[in-house]
Design brief:
With 425 residues, the protein is mainly alpha-helical. It contains 20 helices and 5 strands. The N and C termini lie far apart (58 Å).
Length: 425
């Protein structure tokens, strides 16, 4: 699609981001697509249905991005956030992912699920949303009157020195062969997608579950669709030349246009797909009128429109299915638990460069090694938290936190069985 101004292209892309996210929100609500629930089903009941749905979404996203990049429809290089960046912050992926996994368990769902629950009438998810927004915002934006962020104060001094600077991109294809990365990305993407699909569909139970297949397929396609919208759909004709939406601002063409023709300032203009923690954080910047993530002005961003879209899609399905229900905190402990979970998600999601959708589906679709590492860490943090909660529930006062923690690590084969403090349940 060709546009005569950046402003027209920008708004078209924002509305497409919103529309696809509406579909994502409705389907996630309808199919109960929930990454925290997927880990819970696996840990507590040995049910792999929803974890396979999550992995199906990854496989579809990987396959779609791999093919469309190879035929030069778009590129995810230079994405926002920089999934394939040469700075391999392995420790931040692990710590951030683990924090996020713990947080999503305490907060009753990841960032995407929080939006879905808001659309379904869950009032306590609004508190989770607000707290995520504030902490995610101040992870990368300074506190009023200072130059300090949560990241610079708490993490940077000891995590940054561990970051590995690579010669090129950190995606699997480029690591195999930087000189022939296009072909290697195709080969690696197809291999990864086939392996994931084999794991998913080898389960006859999964193959017979319509909702799990629908959820995984649609979420994966929505991620691919968003990549296409942001990176390959729009072009802009200006000063006799044609530019893509993503390189229009980088060429500073809009700055050379007369002010009346510039339209909206480039807010977050880059190849991108769905991720929710940083965009939820952008809501705080938008609300207080401050610059968001170093961008000029407070115009709406791709990610913010996606946030609105998921909520609206979930709301529409809740109303159509008559499943809209108002839900509040059970007691004070429930409130505090969700509060802590939201803080961990806001901080951890930014530190890990994404959430269960942002890293484990969108990031994985680029074959970035950091995305796989973040995904594993999220699952680990969530599973560990669930096991600790379960042991404390079963053994009550006998199970101190440390006893439950050590026993959970034994269950996960991370400590020798001789260190077990509580009998297996």
């Amino acid at each position: 699609m060709n546009f005569e101004s950046f402003d027209a292209a920008h708004w078209a892309i924002l509305w497409w981001a919103f529309g696809i996210a509406v579909v994502m929100g409705a389907v996630a609500n309808k199919t109960n697509f929930c990454t925290m629930g997927a880990v819970s089903d696996l840990v507590n009941m040995g049910d792999t249905g929803r974890i396979r749905a999550w992995i199906l979404a990854m496989a579809v996203a990987v396959l779609g991005v791999t093919i469309l990049e190879f035929v030069d429809v778009f590129s995810t290089d230079g994405a926002r956030p920089p999934y394939r960046g040469s700075s391999f912050a392995w420790l931040e992926y692990i710590i951030g992912g683990t924090m996020f996994g713990i947080g999503m368990t305490l907060g009753s769902g990841c960032g995407n699920k929080t939006l879905v629950r808001i659309g379904g009438g869950n009032i306590k998810s609004i508190l989770v949303f607000i707290v995520i927004s504030i902490f995610a915002y101040f992870m990368i934006n300074p506190f009023p009157g200072t130059d300090d962020t949560i990241y610079s104060l708490v993490f940077y001094p000891w995590t940054n020195p561990t970051t590995v600077s690579l010669a090129g991109s950190q995606d699997i294809g480029a690591l195999i062969s930087a000189e022939n990365k296009g072909t290697m990305r195709l080969v690696a993407g197809l291999v990864v997608a086939v392996l994931l699909l084999f794991f998913v569909f080898k389960s006859s139970e999964f193959r017979s579950n319509f909702d799990n297949k629908l959820g995984g397929l649609v979420i994966g396609l929505c991620v691919v669709g968003a990549w296409y919208v942001s990176a390959g759909m729009a072009s802009i004709t200006a000063d006799g030349e044609t530019y893509s939406w993503t390189n229009y601002a980088s060429n500073d063409v809009w700055m050379m246009m007369p002010e009346a023709e510039q339209g909206a300032a480039p807010s977050g203009v880059a190849p991108q797909s769905y991720t929710f923690i940083n965009p939820i954080g952008e809501m705080t910047g938008y609300a207080v009128g401050n610059n968001v993530d170093g961008m000029r002005g407070t115009t709406l961003t791709f990610g913010m429109m996606a946030v609105f879209g998921v909520i609206v899609g979930s709301l529409l399905w809740a109303l159509l299915s008559k499943s809209f229900r108002i839900e509040w905190f059970v007691n004070g402990k429930d409130f505090v638990t969700h509060l802590i979970g939201a803080i961990l998600m806001g901080v951890g999601g930014v530190l890990a460069l994404g959430c269960t959708i942002g890293q484990a589906v969108t990031g994985v679709s680029t074959l970035a090694v950091g995305s796989f590492l973040a995904f594993i860490s999220i699952v680990f943090g969530s599973a560990l938290t669930m096991k600790i909660q379960y042991y404390k529930l079963v053994y009550e006062e006998e199970a101190t936190f440390m006893k439950a923690f050590i026993t959970a690590l034994v269950d996960m084969k991370l400590l020798p069985s001789g260190m077990r403090k509580l009998d297996a349940v």
